[in-house]
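Tokens as discussed.
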């Protein structure tokens, strides 16, 4: 799964970077999403594989905090990028005459740069708070990586300030992008419904289908795990959901975005030097 995830996301990045036809805002955001997904799995799976191979399931205190920091930063980046992609689809479908002016390259680059900065800043603040806790009870983490809730359950310090900060950040950096996605798709669906021809409706909806699938998987699992009090967290269901968003979704994203996307499939064929195959089949 780790190799498939890395190769799949790397191919998406190479295909977009090497094909001038894909140098558009939508594929710029997709290339960044693929980069984040590849890095996301690299913060967790290699350590899991080492533990399985060595049968020595340990991680240092510093290593645990570093892993938690990168996990949170990259998860927040995923959140921001999915919101940007939803807004991009909204402008393209609902405001097509303003698309070039609104989603110009400089604007897209600034949005991504701000997302990288904010996600790292928010992750650093929570990691700094977690580093101040003392773990005087069991040091056994009931999880396969250093997730927030399992660590909070082991802390014997007062975690109230951490939980307030975490909920505040979740409301600002988690709910705002999610609301942006909901509002964008509400406008998109309204526009699609007003189109008289069935063919036109299908064509417009097909441009959003891949992104909508990824959004549903990503937010569905995250809400089930993190939008609950830490006291009600259960290890087994939490681990199952964690496997989905840390391993399964990053692995499936390249397939979701390429198998139902003609432009992406043609770019991948050209990447492998099989351009003529597209026209002869």
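Sequence:
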């Amino acid at each position: 799964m780790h190799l498939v995830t890395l190769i799949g996301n790397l191919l998406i990045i190479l295909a977009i970077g090497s094909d001038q036809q894909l140098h558009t805002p939508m594929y710029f955001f997709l290339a960044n999403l693929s980069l984040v997904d590849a890095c996301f799995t690299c913060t967790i799976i290699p350590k899991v594989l080492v533990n399985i191979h060595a049968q020595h399931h340990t991680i240092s205190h510093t290593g645990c905090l570093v892993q938690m920091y990168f996990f949170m930063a990259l998860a927040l980046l995923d959140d921001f990028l999915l919101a940007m992609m939803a807004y991009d689809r909204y402008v393209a479908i609902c405001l097509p005459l303003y698309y070039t002016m609104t989603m110009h390259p400089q604007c897209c680059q600034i949005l991504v740069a701000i997302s990288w900065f904010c996600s790292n800043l928010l992750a650093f603040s929570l990691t700094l708070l977690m580093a101040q806790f003392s773990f005087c009870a069991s040091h056994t983490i009931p999880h396969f990586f250093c997730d927030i809730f399992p660590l909070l359950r082991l802390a014997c310090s007062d975690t109230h300030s951490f939980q307030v900060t975490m909920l505040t950040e979740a409301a600002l950096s988690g709910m705002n992008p999610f609301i942006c996605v909901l509002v964008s798709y509400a406008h998109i669906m309204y526009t699609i419904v007003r189109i008289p021809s069935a063919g036109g409706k299908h064509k417009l909806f097909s441009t959003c289908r891949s992104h909508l699938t990824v959004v549903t998987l990503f937010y569905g699992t995250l809400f089930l795990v993190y939008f609950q009090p830490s006291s009600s967290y259960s290890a087994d269901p939490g681990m199952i959901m964690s496997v989905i968003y840390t391993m399964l979704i990053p692995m499936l994203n390249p397939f979701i975005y390429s198998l139902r996307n003609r432009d992406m499939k043609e770019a991948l064929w050209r990447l492998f030097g099989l351009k003529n195959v597209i026209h002869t089949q």
